[in-house]
TrEMBL record:
The chain crosses the membrane at residues 67-85, 105-129, 149-176, 183-208. This is Glycosyltransferase RgtA/B/C/D-like domain-containing protein. Keywords: Membrane, Transmembrane, Transmembrane helix. The keyword Transmembrane applies.
Length: 230
């Protein structure tokens, strides 16, 4: 176990300094859009991206007076929180450390992008869903926490709705096998509460901006070429 503790500390250091070693500092075109939305707050100018990540940037920018360092500290907090939570809760600590060796975690915690907080919340969504399936007590409490996290994921990235739809599809396909299980009712609560939160955010977008996800702000879809399918 000691080697995994040492490895987790090394990851925190590496993940923090990685963007300092490249010329663009992990700042891309989307990063500038997030910074712009954050700078406009509390005025809302666009719903091209959800407000979750810009709100976090604005909060931490107030501490460091710089959006770059706000994004860096956020990524560092995401990394530390996941590893510390996994260790203290004994929730697949070794497996969690190994996740940080892969390119997915390296990429999402590399720069100022909403993938970072999205994956951060996804980790805790897995935790609370795991609790629902494996624990007899506190299922409804875990369902409420899981629903709040999923709504938070949707507020980070609109693609969070696909995770919500996948849970619905799972319950539909497995209905006859899981309807008598103790966790089934908790899953229904999770679906209902998550659905209300996501629907509420979409309605807010529609009535305030005139579109659900900024679809009227996007250009025409790119041509589909055979190379994209390979």
């Amino acid at each position: 176990m000691m080697k995994y503790k040492i490895l987790s500390i090394l990851f925190i250091i590496i993940y923090f300094i990685q963007t300092l070693c490249v010329s663009f500092g992990g700042i891309g075109a989307d990063s500038l859009s997030y910074f712009g939305i954050a700078a406009d707050l509390p005025t809302l100018e666009t719903n091209l991206f959800p407000l979750g990540y810009p709100i976090l940037l604005r909060l931490f920018k107030g501490l460091f007076d710089d959006y770059f360092w706000a994004s860096k500290i956020l990524n560092c907090l995401f990394t530390v929180s996941i590893l510390l939570f996994s260790y203290l809760k004994k929730f697949y600590f070794r497996e969690t450390v190994l996740l940080f060796t892969g390119k997915t975690f390296f990429f999402v915690f590399f720069g100022a992008m909403s993938e970072g907080p999205f994956i951060f919340l996804l980790y805790f969504l897995f935790y609370f869903l795991h609790q629902i399936f494996s624990k007899d007590l506190g299922a409804y409490k875990n369902a409420v926490w899981a629903s709040l996290i999923l709504v938070g994921m949707f507020m980070m990235r609109y693609s969070g709705i696909y995770i919500y739809l996948s849970v619905i599809l799972f319950c539909f396909l497995m209905y006859f096998k899981i309807r008598e299980k103790k966790y089934f009712n908790a899953l229904i609560v999770f679906i209902i509460l998550s659905g209300l939160g996501i629907t509420g955010y979409l309605l807010f977008n529609f009535f305030y901006f005139g579109s659900f996800t900024g679809e009227n702000l996007r250009g025409e879809p790119a041509a589909m070429l055979p190379i994209y399918i390979a």
